[in-house]
Amino acid sequence: MRNDVVERALLAPTRTFALVAGLSVALITGCDSVSGIPGDPVEVTAAPTTTATQAVATPAPTSTTESVPADAPQVGAVAGDQDAVAAVRRWAADLRTDTVAALKDKCWTIPPNTVATMYADPSTVLAVLTGPGTATEDGVTWRDRGTTVTVDRESIDSGYACGRVFAAGVEPGYDEADARHTVRRYLARATGKPLNSDDVEATHPLTCAASPVQWDPEGTGNPTAPPLTSDSGKVGNVTSFTGEELRSEQIRGDYLAVHVPVTTSPGGTRTRTFTVVTTAEGYCIGDVTI
Fold this sequence. Notes:
Blueprint: H1 82-97, H2 100-106, H3 112-118, H4 122-129, E1 134-135, E2 139-143, E3 147-152, H5 153-158, E4 164-167, H6 176-190, E5 238-241, E6 247-252, E7 255-264, E8 268-279, E9 282-289
Antiparallel strand pairs: 1-2, 2-3, 3-4, 5-7, 6-7, 7-8, 8-9
């Protein structure tokens, strides 16, 4: 994932992304439950003192210093971007052989159920990747008549780029499951149990940048810096949160509100509302309110 992203503004000019998550992920806004919302896991993140149910940080799947497996599937060339080809080949090698559970661990920046849905047909994904890729400032895309596979710059720069898979005719982008997953990762870090040991703010920013000044969830026309940039402690001293109760709703344009019960010490359990906005590389969090 992009190592220099902390140097740039995450709040790219607001754009309307189609709220989609893969080949057949439905758009559902509401309370996460054991029945499952596409893209969301159903486990609860427990307090640090409850060792039996603590999330275990998994090691990074690979790095830019590791060579591409000799038998990795071939990936179509990307003009002027061999790093993208190498990063995608590392993921493609695992896509061809790994279980869905293993892929969920390795592609931890993507909501687990989204991984399961998007990677349901590995052969189709691998076939798309054999064609040439097209690079933009935000990432690289491979297409054929039936499927689109995209990887963002942050993923490419990490050396291991998990692709996002979309049906033909579907505009690649991020959906509400991605917004909830951003908040889940943020709170998992806050409890000392990140989803992956590499999931740290310096290399994987989840909070919106202070500049350019474009934060305006209420549509006032007078944007400001995201409140969280000047008060990172607004969420409080988090000891646990109820991951299966994350729910989201659209506020305006690309802004969403994600609600989740959070336990702090001291303070008990109260619902926190995280305001997030979509950018070229996913959602970032700009504010937290009680």
